[in-house]
Amino acid sequence: MKIKLIVLLLTFSFVAALCHSADIHMGKWKLNESKSKIDPAMQKKTMIIYEAEGVNVKITMDGVDAAGKATHNEWIGKFDGKDYPVTGDPTSDMRSYTKVDDHTLHAIAKKEGKTTTDVHIVVAADGKSRTVTSTGTDSKGKKITSVFVYDKQ
């Protein structure tokens, strides 16, 4: 009886840990501009939502481009490093996400097969904020980097 209880408790703990690690990225994230360092040439994503959609993850991004025009794009896929289509983003048509560890994702945005942006996403240990470091090139081919800080809503 004690062995069954121990196995049950260990199984429950393992499943709970898996669920927590999978969910740390999920939810609504609002840009904290005062803590961010944004290159004026880079799009500013002011709200990002990660949500489960069947076996996939749906990521919706709203914000403004360098000219101040409203942007909205969506991506549906898995965190498996494979390219999945992006809709609504003039700077990319495909995006891939790779889970580095429980708190870290690496993303690559591509336009017509060419990498346009390399993104490193880290959720804080407490799960209340995340830092997104984005590196790309502007319209003149100059390398630009921005650091976006988001607060969980």
Description:
With 153 residues, this protein is mainly beta. The chain has a single domain (2-152), classed as Lipocalin, CATH 2.40.128. Helix content is 14%, strand content 53%. It is built from one helix and ten strands, in the order H-E-E-E-E-E-E-E-E-E-E. The protein has one helix at 2-23, and strands at 27-31, 44-53, 56-64, 70-77, 84-87, 94-101, 104-111, 114-123, 129-137, 143-152. Strands 1-2-3-4-5-6-7-8-9-10 form a ten-stranded antiparallel barrel. It starts with a helix and ends with a strand. Residues 13-21 have low confidence and may be disordered.
Spatial strand arrangement across the major sheet: 1-2-3-4-5-6-7-8-9-10
- Our count of helices gives 1
What is the number of beta strands? 10
Helix content: 10-25%
Main β-sheet, in a few words?
A: 10 strands, antiparallel, barrel
Rg is 18 Å
Strand content: over 45%
- CATH class reads Mainly Beta
Number of domains: 1
Model regions low in confidence, pLDDT < 50 over at least 5 residues: 13-21
Mean pLDDT metric: 89
Offer a concise description of the structure.
By secondary structure, this protein is mainly beta.
